[in-house]
Design a protein that fits this description.
0% strand, 76% helix, single chain, 8 helices, Tetracycline Repressor, domain 2
Length: 192
């Protein structure tokens, strides 16, 4: 059977509806009734799939993360330099997220929820993979995981302070430039 003709499952419909509702209302104002209505199902039918709004939100975040990481993985193969790979990954993960937040101000209440915090662990692993070879070759006493953690922590701060996607891109570019130069220069005499 042609996949494109297969209707989405009730679970997938609920996740997609949840995404729309959370973007519109944020987490605090969204209700299971809103999600059920957007999914074209009754509240009891939604409760058969998800026990709570938190469960719907976790599924929505997982859906967003899987999509973002898949797009990052697919796009990395076409980028040759460390900087290009890092910029691409950060564009997908951070700039798109900021653009969503700027277009839907109520989503800011979602950034501190456990599902979102857990998502950064997966992005950190993605960055660690990108940075691995360069960190090993650099001769610096720093791991790819440490660099990735610094980047993710900075990105979280950038999302809180950037007023536009252009400003976010600039902050990311500065951070990536500093990391690239540090990795390329290696340790100075007497630093090891």
């Amino acid at each position: 059977m042609n996949e494109s003709l297969t209707p989405p499952s009730k679970r997938q419909r609920a996740i997609e509806a949840g995404a729309r509702v959370f973007l519109r209302f944020g987490f605090a104002r969204a209700t299971m009734g809103d999600i059920a209505q957007a999914a074209g199902m009754s509240r009891p039918a939604l409760y058969l799939i998800f026990c709570s709004k938190e469960e719907v939100f976790e599924a929505v975040v997982a859906y967003w993360i899987d999509d973002s990481l898949a797009r990052i993985a697919a796009g990395l193969a076409t980028r040759s330099t460390l900087g290009d790979k890092l910029r691409f990954a950060c564009e997908i993960w951070c700039v798109e997220g900021l653009e969503l937040a700027l277009a839907n101000p109520d989503v800011r209440d979602m950034t501190r929820l456990p599902a979102v915090r857990k998502s950064y662990v997966r992005f950190e692993a993605c960055l660690t993979d990108i940075l691995q070879g360069a960190a090993e070759r650099s001769g610096l006493d720093v791991t790819a995981g440490d660099l990735a953690r610094v980047m993710v922590s900075a990105m979280q701060g950038f999302k809180q302070t950037a007023q536009s996607s252009g400003e976010m891109r600039h902050l990311i570019a500065v951070q990536i430039l500093a990391i690239e130069r540090a990795l390329a220069s290696g340790p100075r005499s007497g630093e090891r």
